[in-house]
What does this fold into?
Amino acid sequence: MVKLSFGIVALGANLPLSQRDPRATLRAALNILHSGPGISISALSRFWRTPAVPTGSGPDFVNAAATIRTDLPPDEVLAHLHRIEAEFGRDRSGGRWSARSLDLDLVAMDDRILPNADHLRRWMGLDPQAQRTLAPDRLILPHPRLQDRAFVLAPLAEIAPGWRHPLTGQSVSDMLAALRPEALEGMVPMGTSDLDIRRPSEQ
It folds into this structure.
């Protein structure tokens, strides 16, 4: 029997695409992800409206988090996420924190640390300016900015509050509680995604 890995995917969008608003884009992308080869969504958060950062830099984002089960290695999961982004017109030329039609981040897989703990620590310790200008040349897991991002942690706390960061030992709930109150300012849950994917409490 093939062992399935547990993964976490963060989703976001703040630009319309063709006739779709960002919520419709996320729904369509989630359906593709759920029906794709070797990947299934096991739980899905509500959609959240999140202000763009820095303030005034673009329309509000729609964010969500999903947990997945997969028999694929992390690099293949990431490649699949990038293919979905490209299908929905993702343009990376505007910079790391620019507005986008779709953003799919592989946040974690099981308790893996990639490529190694020292590399992860360096990226977790980057100052804010370096975060804006530097991009890793390889997959880093868990995502080095996970512990700083309310727009990931708030949705993720709905579906995987007890998952623990393999380097720090902090749970999702711990990381969310450690954020400054202003990190959550303007974030508002928008209701369910209307997809036929049941959350753990409903199974």
